[in-house]
Design brief:
Layout (H helix, E strand, L loop, with lengths): L8 E4 L8 H12 L7 H18 L5 H16 L5 H8 L11 H8 L4 E6 L3 H11 L5 E4 H4 L7 H13 L6 E5 L2 H11 L3 E4 L22 E3 L2 H14 L4
Parallel strand pairs: 1-2, 1-4, 2-3, 4-5, 5-6
Helix pairs in contact: 2-3, 3-4, 5-10
Length: 243
């Protein structure tokens, strides 16, 4: 069993883990697709590969433009044009995406035990809007805009390694927490980082808005929600007589 009390910092993916990006994306794609005869899940699957492709092909592109171009490509694949207005609507929607109901409370509880770090595939302004919902006290925030690339590329993890000494955190004291196998658990394994899988889709088949993992991955622990993970952390520290 992984000893949760041996870590002093947690790095988090945000979208899919803390913020319900599938609900946010669907809120735009679903009304656009009215009459096409495709379900919300089918829309997410159609969209997933396009976003990953844009991020891979144009890694320096800001996330609003990534969303817009991925939407246009999804429309082309489904045989319906995505107008500039629709593309902008998705591109500008990140601050409106809802937080999972347990995220803010779980982050507050986890902050009693660890320093918290964000490792996210969005732009700075998008995350700032999301953090108004999360109310997280983050020691460091690393976005795609900061590193000029998108996970699963290694740039975020290089920046993370450079940031840890300034926080007084040894690498072996860091635990990575994420939902996406494709974006986070594959590179975490590659980087030799222990990880926790927040399996938000545990009660649904398929991969949704996230591509199927394209490489080896592993997770040291798995929980269905952030609340369940925070409960496990509280129990672990209480068992050791620690706060």
């Amino acid at each position: 069993m992984t000893d949760l009390t041996k870590f002093t910092a947690l790095s988090f993916d945000c979208y899919g883990t803390l913020i319900d990006w599938e609900a946010g994306i669907t809120a735009v794609l679903s009304p656009w697709a009215e009459g096409l005869g495709v379900s919300d899940e089918e829309l997410l699957v159609a969209y997933a590969g396009n976003e990953a492709a844009v991020e891979r092909e144009a890694p320096a592109t800001r996330y609003p433009e990534v969303l817009a171009e991925a939407f246009r490509r999804t429309g082309a694949g489904l045989g319906r044009e995505v107008t500039g207005d629709w593309a902008r609507r998705l591109g500008e929607s990140v601050p409106d995406w809802p937080a999972f109901p347990d995220s803010a409370g779980a982050l507050a509880r986890l902050a009693e035990h660890y320093q918290l770090i964000i490792l996210s595939n969005v732009h700075r302004a998008g995350f700032a809007g999301s953090n108004e919902r999360l109310r997280g006290r983050f020691a460091a925030i690393i976005t795609a805009e900061d590193v000029g690339a998108y996970k699963p590329a290694p740039n975020h993890f290089r920046a993370l390694d450079e940031t840890l000494p300034s926080l007084g955190v040894a690498r072996e004291e860091l635990l990575h927490v994420a939902q996406s196998l494709f974006h986070d658990h594959v590179p975490a394994k590659r980087e030799g980082l222990p990880s926790v899988w927040i399996n938000r889709r545990h009660d649904r088949p398929g991969w949704g808005a996230t591509p199927e993992p394209g490489g080896d991955w592993s997770a040291d622990l798995e929980y269905p929600s952030m609340g369940a993970f925070a409960n496990a952390v509280d129990h672990a520290f209480a068992g050791r007589g620690l706060r």
